[in-house]
Automatic annotation (TrEMBL):
Domain spans labelled MABP1/WDR62 second WD40: 7-287
Name the UniProt record assigns to this protein: Mitogen-activated protein kinase-binding protein 1
Keyword terms: Kinase, Transferase, WD repeat
SMART domains: WD40
Species: Characodon lateralis
Keyword field contains Transferase: yes
Length: 322
């Protein structure tokens, strides 16, 4: 597999570009501006590093040796999101989503062969997440078309296929999404500075609250802590906030980056929040001891549940086994 794109459409696009009279120097300048990694993801096993660039190229590297395992022109525009399926799903999948409105699902257990291509979104796709819930494997995606799609995995002949279960439309662009540890709810960061919480099982909106303390800007990124008690957000006003996931109460606000924060991550020990920004800086924020204690207590309460495999329903025991 060297190319996931329709070569006829690429040829037409190139021909149109020539007719438009674009010079070689202009084309080279455009390519230089578009070169660069857009998104990264490490596989759950920690063995593979997936990267998507602004030209739509997907690369897979071996983390230990950094040898390139795969190099494929997956999309005709920049790759905005990569997501590996979690171990509890019983699958080894990689989803790639792009500004070209397509989602490719690849089988990581079979040399990243193509499983399915989804084209339901009508605009850029900003986030894709997998979740195992109530005996089903879900794939949730959101995008600039203001839509959230909820799909479940089903066995179709000898292959696997994700079919749509719910489709939700809101009045604002959806920029990022995360799934809480019990895998019952998905939190979406929106252009109107709100966080919307959706029930994954039925696709209904459960709650909505402010995702930024300011009156300007847009919620760019959201990240739920390992216990599911808190959600961190980054806003285009360069500030970072932490909210109580259930009540929406703001428990902390941080500022210091000189550009937009493009990534957030809670540490596994629940003691720090790590942020990365367009200012080329990585900040490590020390969380309040009170927050750390609460998160660790919730993790202890959830641990018995996390040790029990998320079994599949009797009617679909092989639907998500590759």
């Amino acid at each position: 597999m060297t190319n996931l794109l329709d070569m006829d459409s690429i040829t037409v696009a190139c021909a149109n570009s020539e007719k438009a009279g674009s010079s070689v120097s202009e084309a080279q300048q455009m390519d230089q501006n578009r070169v660069g990694i857009r998104t990264l993801r490490v596989s759950p096993s920690g063995k593979h590093l997936a990267s998507g660039d602004r030209m739509g190229v997907l690369r897979i590297h071996d983390v230990e040796s950094m040898d390139e395992i795969l190099n494929v022109q997956a999309h005709d525009s920049e790759i905005l999101c990569l997501e590996f399926s979690k171990p509890e799903t019983g699958l080894q999948l990689l989803a790639t989503a792009s500004r070209d409105r397509l989602i490719h699902v690849l089988d990581a257990a079979r040399e990243y062969s193509l499983v399915q291509t989804l084209d339901e979104h009508s605009s850029s796709i900003t986030a894709v997440r997998f979740a195992a819930n109530e005996g089903k494997v879900w794939m949730i995606s959101c995008g600039a078309d203001k839509s959230v799609y909820f799909r479940t995995a089903q066995q179709m002949g000898e292959g696997l296929e994700f079919t749509r279960r719910h489709h939700v439309v809101r009045k604002t662009t959806l920029y990022d999404m995360d799934v809480e540890p019990t895998r019952k709810y998905a939190a979406v960061g929106c252009q109107d500075r709100k966080i919307r919480i959706f029930n994954i099982g039925n696709g209904k909106q459960k709650k909505v609250y402010k995702g930024s303390q300011g009156e300007d800007g847009t919620v760019i990124k959201v990240q739920i802590d390992p216990s599911g008690l808190y959600i961190a957000t980054s806003c285009s006003d360069k500030n970072v906030s932490i909210f109580d996931f259930f009540s929406g109460e703001c428990v902390a606000t941080m500022f210091g980056h000189s550009e937009i924060v493009t990534g957030l991550k809670f540490s596994n020990d629940c003691r720090h929040l790590i942020t990365v920004s367009g200012d080329s800086c990585i900040f490590v924020w020390r969380l309040s001891p009170e927050l750390t204690i609460r998160m660790r207590q919730r993790l202890a309460d959830l641990r018995p549940l996390s040790t029990i495999p998320n079994s599949l329903s009797a009617s679909e025991p092989k639907a998500v086994k590759l």
